[in-house]
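wait is this the right file?? whatever heres the structure
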């Protein structure tokens, strides 16, 4: 059984911003570690990122006024050095939107080719 993720690995994951650790938590969606957080990174790159928002979790946030992990991005994680890139910033606020939106015009985000997660923000291209 694998207990760590090797550098350079590619796997399908769910990534969310961990408010306690102030890093990105990366949860495996396949393989031996499926369903478990396999890494925490200050920066991460996803290929083919798609938004995933649990509407039941969002309703819980709205009802209880207490944050919980219910939204993130699903895609193929590349655990390697990050290339600098610029793109459109996306954001998610359960009190204002049902899904991820582009920060500049608030239109819904449905997916992109790549996402760079860094400093608590997400840029997509």
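ok assuming it is, sequence goes like this
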């Amino acid at each position: 059984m694998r207990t760590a993720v090797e550098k350079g690995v590619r796997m399908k994951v769910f990534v969310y911003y961990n408010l306690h650790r102030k890093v990105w938590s990366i949860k495996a969606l396949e393989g031996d570690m499926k369903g478990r957080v396999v890494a925490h990174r200050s920066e991460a790159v996803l290929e083919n990122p798609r938004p995933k928002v649990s509407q039941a979790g969002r309703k819980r946030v709205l009802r209880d006024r207490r944050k919980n992990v219910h939204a993130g991005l699903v895609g193929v994680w590349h655990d390697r050095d990050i290339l600098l890139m610029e793109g459109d910033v996306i954001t998610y606020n359960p009190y204002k939107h049902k899904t991820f939106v582009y920060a500049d015009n608030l239109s819904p985000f449905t997916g992109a080719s790549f996402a760079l997660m860094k400093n608590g923000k997400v840029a997509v291209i």
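The chain has a mean pLDDT of 90. so i think its the right one actually
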